[in-house]
Amino acid sequence: MASVGNGYLATIVGTNTQYISGVFNGLNTRDPSHRARIPATLAITVAESTPYACALDLQNGIYYRRSTVSKYPGAYVEQKWYVHRTLRNVAVHVLTLHPASSSAPITVSLSNNAGSPSSDFNFTATNTTNTQTAMNGYILVPEEPGSPHVHVALSYSKTPATFTGTNGNATWVAYSVAYTSLEEQDPVAAAHTQYVDMTQAAEQDVEAAHKQGWAQLWVSGIEVGGDLHLAQAINSSLYYILSSVRDDWHYSLSPGGLASNGYNGHSFWDVETWMFPSLALLYQDLASSVLQYRFDRIPGAQAKAKSYTPPYAGAMFPWESAFTGQEVCPSSAPTGQLEQHISGDIAYAVRLYWFLSGDDAWMKSVGWPIVQGVAEFYTSRVVYNATSRLYSINGVIPPDEYAVNVNNSVYTNVVAVYSLQFATQVANHFQQPADPKWSEIASSMIIPFDTKQQIHPEFEGYHGQTIKQADVVLLGYPLAWNMSQTVLRNDLEYYSARTDSNGPAMTYGIHAVLWLQLGEAQNAASLFERSYANIQAPFCVWTETPQGGTTNFITGAGGFLQAVWAGYGGVRVAQDGVTVDMTLPEGTSLFALRGVQYVGSDLYLATDGVSLYMRVLSVSQGAPSLTVHTGQGTHTLTTNPPKLQKERVQNVGTENP
Predict the structure, then answer these.
(1) Which residue in the list 78, 401, 529, 586 is annotated as catalytic?
(2) Is 442 helix (H, G, I), strand (E, B) or coil?
(3) What is the rounded distance in angstroms from the CA atom of residue 434 to the CA atom of residue 211?
């Protein structure tokens, strides 16, 4: 089923559950901490009805359902659900009766599918009237001893037993308002007040404001022409990610999206490695929110570092993070203790954001403390070999989670090197003291390499075993590790043959990106198709694997979107400019990136297979000129508002294709 959400609140339409981002119940790694289930308040069902048409309006974030009613031939009921994009605490359900004739009355029986009481809260009902119901309660078990019992309050329309329409169409509008103690000292009063305000508003105005909120998001996006299925896959992937995050609520993302408890609602490397890059490229306010989540939880990362024997220094971000930022990976899984590349993944995301935004104030206040903490962690984590004069990171799990407790994972060591180098760069930029050990370790880290086969072994002692997912190939993209095209190709071919065919789809997206990077579009085409083969009809809901697994798997959506803009778009970001090398996906007639955000300017990039079009759409005051690198050379797009600047490249037109 499809889901609706706004980054604060989300639900899979028709189910008995809704979730609020950041609200978890359960003790750390023991229970473990998980999304706290809130009974549905707008899961309205119509008795003796049969749905005959359903639609998810991606553009406006609204789900529609039409049903026939057995007692009334020719009549139908239309329902729509949305979680308001701009009024973050509000969800809406609208039911309209359409009788067979304008004079025929129609009565339907209604109920709300709230399911059983939640085992995560001690909810009690309050302030019930003929038209309104309210409940509030506290989570039962906080994530850590001493962390708060979060208070949640809901005020919502009471579902009538029956609803009758006479004299033509009749409409019943239901609102649900949710608040927590994370934002309001008295969430009960806040929910009640806003509910009353909603009932006094005209629903068409409420809906118009919601649509405007989504319209502002869709200013940025990805367009393809000539392939409807691909266009739907792209837009639905963006929709499911966008409906799970917002810029004014810093609780990040999870592999199963906000509408589910997939992976307990925790934040993994999935966020920064797979979902974040598309947000950073197109929606920097949302990307900033994701990194704010990590910044706010630096104390939790420091506590995790100190929990080891002997203790580590700095910020060791948890493999699974929820409310406090301390480790919440179930204690039965070794990943919580051993999968330690995530700290480097987060630092790399900070790097990407800084390069794209050019925001020094943000970097100094938010990015630098993250990067400094990660560098301090890896400095304390490495082991020095006095004989070889090299540094190792031993006893880890790499992205290939089939490998447990291995030494010198090449991916882990590379992200550690990048973290240390980047920390030195940022310190120098802001004239802050840089630990000389950072540069020393970065230049002397073991990076496994097989000189005979000219490949990077996944770790010391790797001998060609089956791997779970993309690992070594990530050195080619997104890490852009310094290697020859020959080695990049060797790694790609070697590990393609050794990757579990039932693993997550992100692997195929990375393989497609790398074949395109090597200039071999034919090899990329079939892999690109596999990168979104896990999208399930009719609403393009992602599953983790071809066989199923976690549903609404927006990690897969994030990997696929990178295959689109980094693969066929050829977009690479550096501090000195953007590289663009656009290729039409097979079977398409147009490919465009709309609203690419780079150092204060929004860009439009497009190709029709013959020409590359580049345009500056908007410019922030004081934004610098833009440097864009293409296969035909380096181009400077001047950014002097209010003029609309255009640049010709190849046989470039200056209008949209």
Answers:
(1) 401
(2) helix
(3) 48
